Each structure stands twice: as C-alpha cells, then as structure tokens.
C-alpha cells in the first residue's frame, strides 16, 4: 500500500493552513533587551529535529529563565522543507517503508504528549478502513503533512519561558562577534544577537556538467538540472528526444515527472504496471558511469532485516583501534565480500537450515567462473558474459526483470534480497569506521570516488513501486538504454551530440539528474559561500585528501575561525566528516541533540551531568 494525502481526513490534509498564520517576517518581531536568543537556520526535518531536541531538553533544565528561539526557513514549509512540501506530487515517494519513520526520539521524553510515529499518525488520520502495515510506503507530501503536524504539537507543548518564532526569511550571511552571532538576509543585518546557532540547510552545489556547458558559450536553454527543481522539466516539448545523465533515485523521479507528471496513468494488470500515455511524453535515453539502472530498495525495518554475520559491532570496535590507518581494500573489503556472498548462498533452499560452515564449504566448491560474488552486483555485464553485439537495451530489460523477480520475496527470503541487504547493513558499519578521518586518505578517496556510487545504486535505491514503474516505461519503449559505455558530450547549436565507440545520437535536451558532490570551493548557496570566505567554515582534510567538505568537531560543532562560538551543522551538509547523514534516522549523528545540550548549558550554566 502506498499512502498519500487523499487517504487522510480533511483536517490532516490542511495542516499547512494551520501553520501559515504562525509564520512571521523579521519586521514583525520585537527586539527585547536582556533576553537570550537562539537561531535555527533551515526549516526541513533536521531543523525540526533540532528544535524538538532543544524544547524537550529545556522542559526540565531551563527553569524560569526566558529565551527566544528564531526558526528560519526560506519558504512556509516548516517541518517539511522543500523535499517534503505538501505541494509535492504524490507519485514521489519516501523510499523507506513507514515502519520506523518517526519525528520523535525514542530514548527520552519529548515535549509533546502526542508523539505519534508515522504509522500511528496514518492510522489515526486515515479515511479508509484499511489498516496501515509496517511494510507500506507513503508519498513525500503525506510525510510532510505528518512533520508539520509534529511541529504544531511541539508548539502546543511550549511553556511560558520560551518564545518561538517561525520566520520566513532566507539567511544569506552570518557574522560572529565574540560570543554572539548576527544574521543577514538579502538586504540587511538583522538586529537579534544569537548566543547559539544551528544550520540544517544543505549545500546547493552545481554539477561539473553545468560548468562544462557554461564554458562552451552555448545557450543553457536545452540543459536542465532536475535535481534542484523538477518544474524546469516542463519546458521540454512532447516527443523530444532527451538524454539524462544519471540512473539513480533522482533519475527515477525525473522520468516520473516527464510521464506521470504530464498526466500519464499507471495501473496494474496481473500485478504488473501498464502505462497509459497522454502523448506529451518525451523519448528518454539514460546514461551514467555504470550505464545500469539502480536496484529497488528492500522493504526492511529494525526488527525485520538482514542481520550481519561477520561485520558485527564487535568487529567495528576492534577495527576502530586503527583510526586514521584503516585501509578499505585490506581491512574491510575482504569481509564485506564474504558477508554479501554468504548472505546470497544462505538463502538457497537447501542451505537455509545448515550451519555457517556448511554454507562456506558449499561456496568454496562452486566453479569460480559462475560463483556469485560482489562482482555480480558491481558488473553484471561481465558476470553474465554478455556478447559484444547484444542489443544493450534488451539486456537492461532482461536484467531488470530478473532483479525485480529475484528481490520480490525480500531480504529474509531471497538470494538477491539478502545480498543487497547485507551490502546495505555492511555499509552502515563502514560509516562508523569512516567517520572523522578513520580511513587512510587514499582509502577515503577510494570509497568516495568509487564505492559510494555502487553501494547506493545496489542497496539504497528507490521504493520498489518506482522501480516497477521504470520497468514499465522501459518495456513500453518510453525509455531506451542506447549506450553501454559512457559517451562523450559534444555541444551543438540546437542540442547535444553524444558519442561512444559503438553509437552516436543527437538529442534536443540534456538533463543532469545526478546529485552534486558537496564542495565549499565550488559554486554554492550564498550562506555557505560567505561563511567559507570568512573562514567560519573551513575544509575538512584527511591528510592530503581534501574534497571541500565542511570541517566539524565530533559533536557537530563547526571548526573554523570562531570555534569558540556554538555554531553547529546538522543533516546532509555534515557529510564528509561523517557518511550517510542525509536519511531520516534521528539516532545516527544526531548533532541536533548535542547542539541542544550545549545551548541549554549556555542558557543556564549547567553541566552535561544534568542531562544524564
């Protein structure tokens, strides 16, 4: 089941109407002397998580001291942010199932007495009799409504000693003067002195492909970056031939916007999607570094997922002793390969009930040429011995069919599901070893440049329904994989000529759906650019390896020219010192919690022992 706002009560569907009257501008807020001010910049989920932590901890620790919290966002989607805006089309989904999704911490009291998980909230607000299940998914707009409702419940729990202001304002700069920070909007310096600040917005880098096209002096009219706004795709005429760089989650959402977003309809016939077109669709040709589609994400949750056999917590703690000297290729990769291979073979019917040693023995006696290994996931073309003259689009269609069927039973019941589940769970352990320069410089660069792309493509792809829609469009001819090798791009007056060793083709439009790599040294949002120029932000370096990420203390505090001021970062922009901090899990790298603790210490001159 895919839940969206049409399954909700009218009151739940219009939650944003109840938040809008609470939103102010800076001009509407009166400055009060002898009052403490705290700022949160960014109104998405991570900004809300930080706010909730601050308010919940202050409930017990602040006493009668009064202070003001200013929560800034450039639009009105407080809690939801742009990603989960209530106006997002309901065919764009949250890729995790609803089982574990919650806006609330589970290891402490919260400020709200109504701290429902997403599943509980859907159950309470649904209009249909069908009961929500842990394995269900939901649309992004529904999740945004849930987050906004959590904001309202949080506001309702605020005591008299705290004043919260939701301010619609884009913050473009920040100036630190001693123990105080001042913010700037587009026009002026704001008058409020902030004793503590948390930033939860992400980078907005541009991809190298845009720079390449700009440098060519050709018109940008036929080049579109879909990762920042799908609406830009609307200018593409019907029946145009469009080439898309990237084959990950953003690519999947791009193709849905070009089809379902133009009025096309997907329906299921014998459990398989069919597509009814409107005639407004373009013809889509993807290419990427691998030229392979991303695999669907397994449906899993905390007590229903693959359990690691080799890459255990004890193994992580033992390897952490080598911090700064961990080599991915020698210290991690052999066991990672073993974990994935063992997971695959342990799901064969005759091996499900035997010992681990017997599984390993069975693996050892297999013909090395056909034995399943991680290489089958990384390079299925070579593993499958695909002939050089094969129709590559037909191969992709066959591969997609095989993967969808093989992964259907899930990671606790299928070989492919278990292998991709082991890759995901192993990756989460790798993140713990990677953090804050745990790897050697070469190893970190190798993981960043090579492995991350494969891990996300294979084990952290889109919800299965989106992959099934992709296969439907592929099968019905709206998508074609023309290139088996990464093509070169030649910019021409009316479009783009893409050439590989085997093929070349002219396209009217080029779309870049790849996610830009965060880099302070590249074109960025104005706030990050200004903070970098002032050296409030500095670059995180691991030895000689420097890829432009923001430098942080291990608690999320920014390391820079003014390290004595409590400026914290939380969410996707923290990646670099840490890895995979862009999902919705509140328990991994919860820098919003550590920022809240320090902020309350500042307000009341408490010690950390007051929180234990």
Descriptive report:
With 612 residues, the chain is of the alpha/beta class. It has 18 helices and 19 strands. The protein has helices at residues 10-13, 15-19, 45-61, 118-125, 140-156, 208-215, 249-257, 313-320, 328-345, 356-364, 374-378, 380-383, 392-407, 415-434, 441-459, 464-475, 526-533, 591-604, and strands at 2-3, 23-24, 36-41, 67-73, 137-138, 162-168, 173-177, 180-184, 194-199, 223-225, 241-245, 265-269, 272-276, 283-287, 488-492, 495-499, 504-507, 509-512, 567-569. A six-stranded parallel sheet has the order 2-6-4-3-9-19, with helices on one face. A hairpin with a 4-residue loop joins strand 16 and strand 17 (504-507). Helix 8 (313-320) runs parallel beside helix 14 (415-434), helix 13 (392-407) runs antiparallel to helix 16 (464-475) and helix 14 (415-434) packs antiparallel against helix 15 (441-459). The chain starts with a strand and ends in an 8-residue tail after the last helix.
